[in-house]
Amino acid sequence: MSDMQNDATAQTNFGRSEQKRHTILQSAEELFLTRGFNGTSMDEVAVHAGVSKQTVYNQFGDKERLFREIVLGVTATADAFADGVTEAMRGVDTPAHLDAALRALARRYLATVMNPQVLALRRLVISEATRFPDLAAAYYERGPARVLAALADLFAGLVARDLLAAIGAARAAPDFAFLLLGQALDEGMFRVGEPVLTPAGIDDTADHAVDVFLAAHAPRPASS
């Protein structure tokens, strides 16, 4: 067999292995989210994924490693959102532009966090925090804290452009996040299977949060 044929075969085998890995992760996530860590076995993951139990072990080693990979998959979602935070404010140079951009960002932030699958994963991490405290801490650092840091950098840039007040700037990111998410996220964590916000509710919540945020953080007119 030629080197080219060997390379093609290796690429095909790698593609199949990656597809199996993706299928296992999807199946395991569904089972963990509905049954919890204790209620899910590697046998069930294998059956659900349509692969052998040995394949699951070959890919992930054991149930804890599989669980950790699923939980820390939040990194990709948080990174994508954080990267979009800066992009959302590109070209913002007037208070009117800032108002519109903040409302759009607030809607996207709220819709992302209130996604039922994201809420379910958050519940799962909290339920297993005593068993896996390091994993819960890593989830927070790579998810919520990552987004707060991106917001803090964004607002620091807006202060430098005189679009937000310098006084209280250190609190701007948590103010924005908790004005936006506080009630909805609290309710969403306890109302399993029930939509907390309609599309109209997302709009209303986002607009109210931005109104209050700007009332606190917009630059004050210079006194005469």
Describe this structure in words.
- The chain is mainly α and 224 residues long.
- The chain has two domains: 3-66, Homeodomain-like (Arc Repressor Mutant, subunit A); 72-217, Tetracycline Repressor, domain 2 (Orthogonal Bundle), CATH 1.10.357.
- Helices cover 75% and strands 0% of the residues.
- The longest helix is centred in the N-terminal third of the chain and has 33 residues, at 3-35.
Q: What is the fold's blueprint, element by element?
A:
Blueprint lengths: L2 H33 L6 H8 L3 H8 L2 H9 L2 H15 L6 H19 L2 H12 L5 H10 L1 H17 L11 H19 L8 H19 L7
Oligomer type: single chain
CATH architecture designation of the largest domain: Orthogonal Bundle
Overall SS class? mainly alpha
Structural shape: elongated
Instruction: Estimate the strand proportion.
Output: under 5%
> Whole-number average pLDDT?
88
Share in helix: over 70%
Order of helices and strands: HHHHHHHHHHH
Largest sheet report: none
CATH superfamily of the largest domain: Tetracycline Repressor, domain 2
The end-to-end span amounts to 85 Å
Estimated radius of gyration: 22 Å
CATH class of the largest domain: Mainly Alpha
